Amino acid sequence: MSAPSRRDDPVVTSYALAPTRTITAGGETFAYRELGPRGGVPVVFFVHLAATLDNWDPRIVDAVAAGRHVIAFDQLGVGGSSGSVPDTIEAAAKDAYTFVTALGHDVIDVFSFSMGGMIAQDLVVAHPTLVRRLVLTGTGPRGGKDIDKVAGTTYYDILRATLTRSDPKEFLFFHRDAVGKKAAREFIGRLAERTTDRDAKISTKAFSTQLKAIKAYGRSAPSDLSVITAPTLIANGDHDRMVPSPLSEDLHRRIEGSELVIYPNSGHGGIFQFHEQFAPVAVRFLGPA
């Protein structure tokens, strides 16, 4: 098992080259990667449905890591982490807290996408002082309208992708017009830049469990997001089919003082389609450590 990195370890600035490490906490082993300069408050990345460490867009991760200590991790039961996928978003948030505190951090910044944003919200609600700055992208609030329909949309697009021998993310994250198809191909290409030490893909059982957790989250009573006092950046595409774009506006209304960025002619993966514009926005928002 790998040990947590030390401050005198060589600084890695490319996500494609960041070594996979492990740490044991709460009786389970978490797999994670870190890069960027050590010291100060780290930026912890919370990943999306069915995703492993290999599903982060390196253009966004590398931009943040140019000036900040970045940590990305596999949820339990996924990729290189042990255990089983939690069957609720609340449980996933508890696991995230276990992981973060095991690394010795009592304050973090958060960058989250989709299901990761749901987990991040539950984490902040449970531990309001843990998160200093919060980035929520392609996500929505607990009890948000039509979040519980994500399973139907997901399975439909997986079928479409199978019939065309494509990656499901090309359908789930992007429009199927010429611009969207080009952005999708480029995004999938960037995800393949790491050629060694890659994660195993999520199992069918784990994927199904995550979908059920999201469905329950969508059908739950809303959380009191007024407890979120950390500066918050919210971003999405204007036609998100997975987590409907109006839910980003809903989050913006619920989180006082939050900033909202909506990208045109784009879907769930709007921040990836517009990574050249969004990465600098995220870097400026997150600021120095």
UniProtKB/TrEMBL annotation:
Residues 43-272 form the AB hydrolase-1 domain. Pfam families: Abhydrolase_1. One of its GO terms (molecular function) is catalytic activity. This is Pimeloyl-ACP methyl ester carboxylesterase.
